[in-house]
Amino acid sequence: MRIAFLGLGQMGAAIARNILNAGHELTVWNRSPDKAATLVAAGAQQRGTPAEAAEGAEIVFTMLADDRAVEAVTFGENGLLTAKDGPVHVGLSTISLDLARKLTEAQGQHYASAPVFGRPNVAAAAKLNIVAAGPEAVLAKAQPIFAAIGQRVLPVGDAPLLANLVKLCGNFMIMASLEAMGEALALAEKNGLDKAKLFEVLTGTLFGSAVFTNYGPAMLERSFRPAGFPAPLGLKDMNLVNAAATDSRVPMPLLGTVREHLLQTIGQQGEDVDWSAIVGTIAANAGL
Ligand code: NAP
Q: 3-state DSSP call for residue 43?
């Protein structure tokens, strides 16, 4: 298939590489053009604007940092919607429900949301879990690409924003899980119990979860650099959850706690730590 891919950050570059590896014809665009070099060397075509990259593509994928980036690339000057033929657009980014609505209603494209669970190493291994929602025809068309980049597609409905809602709920749950485990680890350590022992008992009995398997080493060693998922992106997501909760009048007090800890983490430890560094903040607050 002829595929266009817009956004070659940590996630996008890894995903685009797997599309190329699966034998598809790939055109790429990134705001900072130098990030396309490796893909171009591997056979991708590079274009100067999102619209040029989208030209003639059967599907355009976007994998961009946040709402602002997706807005600029879709609706901005030389954006996706100025491409000649109304493109099929599959959005992989973690964005707000409001923007998913706007993308769905926009004239001049056929849109589906397909945000992903999995960090850049998981993306590189083509093992992402893809949560998909949108018109059946769009999802069917994207199926071969989903197969090339992920291990599983989880369809959740016809309205694209439903997939974004699942992604936001999932990221909130990851943060809440890290908060709970972080507090338990601090309590154990403060009282003379080997925190690795507590972790082993809890994850081996009641709390066997991929979240703890993935984040266990970082939590136990309190090693949060380099960031797989930078804390500022995590804060962006907690703000998106907060907007959805506020709009729909759902009190989420736990969200308030993890959001504050994430903000404190970035303030104290810098912009380049992983979001799991809230565990370090919790330990520091306990005097550890
Ligand atoms: P990243 O490495 O920071 O890459 C961000 C991408 O967005 C880059 O291509 C960047 O372009 C582009 N961008 C940022 N602002 C822009 C703007 N105003 N206009 C145009 N392009 C802009 O982030 P990532 O880790 O790949 O994450 C991408 C998305 O995936 C986010 O929505 C994130 O929440 C989600 N996600 C991430 C992970 C993870 O573990 N990292 C996991 C699941 C989902 P430049 O190169 O020019 O800066």
A: coil
